[in-house]
C-alpha cells in the first residue's frame, strides 16, 4: 500500500517514455488490487490522458491484466450524447475500452438522456449503490468513496476534472458528484467528481504533457510567484500521488 500522502514525481524525456511507464504503473496497481480484493476501481479523465494510456492495449499488458475485474468510472463527463465527439466516454471507448475485455456492466458511463443536474445526481446514486454492493470502498477518514486509482489529466489553466480555477465548485464539500453549466472550456455543461472524492483516492496518477501546461505545473510543484492556488495544486489524496510529467511540462521546475 502507498505511504499516506506520499508524493512521487517523475519527468520523462518524451511522452513515449511516459506512456510506457504509465502502463506499467497502472498494470501493477491492477494486479495488486485484483489480488487483494478481486476488483480494481479505475477512474478515467478525458483529454490527452487516453492517448497516454495507449500502451495498455499492447503486449504484455493487453494479455496480462485481469480486465474482467476492472470497474471503470469517469472523473468528469461532458453532458453530450455518448457518441458525440466531445464525449469523454467516446474518447475512452475508442482508445481503450473497445480494445480490451472489460465487462460492459462494469463500465459506468453518464446517463446521457438527463440534464446536467440530474446526470450528476444519477451518477452519485449509482456510486452509492456500488458502495452497498462492496464494489466501491468508503474512506474511513473522509466518508467519501475511495477509488483504487484515479487517472487525472490537467488543462493549461490548471483545471482537473471539470473543476476550474476560481470556480465555486472548488469548495464543494458535501456532494460526491456535481454539475457545472458554465465551464470556461467547451462544452459548458458537465458533471464532475468533487475534491473530497478526488482526495479520498488510494492512488492518483497526475499525467501532464506539453509546454502549455508548464506554468500550472510550476504553480503546483515549483516556486511560483502566483499566490492563487490552482485546482491541480489542490490534489492531495489520502494515498499516493504520482506525477507523470514529460520534459516540456516540467520545463519551469
Ligand atoms: O475538459 C477536460 O480537460 C481536462 C484536460 O484535458 P487535456 O486534453 O488538456 O489533457 C481533462 O482531464 C478532463 O477530463 C476533460 O473533461
TrEMBL record:
**GO function terms (MF aspect):** 6-phosphogluconolactonase activity
Report the catalytic activity.
6-phospho-D-glucono-1,5-lactone + H2O = 6-phospho-D-gluconate + H(+)
Q: Tell me which UniProt keywords the record has, alphabetically.
A: Hydrolase
Q: Which InterPro entries match?
A: 6-phosphogluconolactonase_DevB, 6PGL, Glc/Gal-6P_isomerase, NagB/RpiA_transferase-like
Any GO BP annotation: carbohydrate metabolic process
Q: Which positions fall inside the Glucosamine/galactosamine-6-phosphate isomerase domain? A: 14-243
Q: Where do the TM regions start and end?
A: none
Q: Name one GO cellular component term.
A: cytoplasm
Question: Pathway membership of this protein?
Answer: Carbohydrate degradation; pentose phosphate pathway; D-ribulose 5-phosphate from D-glucose 6-phosphate (oxidative stage): step 2/3
Instruction: Give the EC number(s) under which this enzyme is classified.
Output: 3.1.1.31
Recorded family membership: Belongs to the glucosamine/galactosamine-6-phosphate isomerase family. 6-phosphogluconolactonase subfamily.
Q: What is this protein called?
A: Probable 6-phosphogluconolactonase
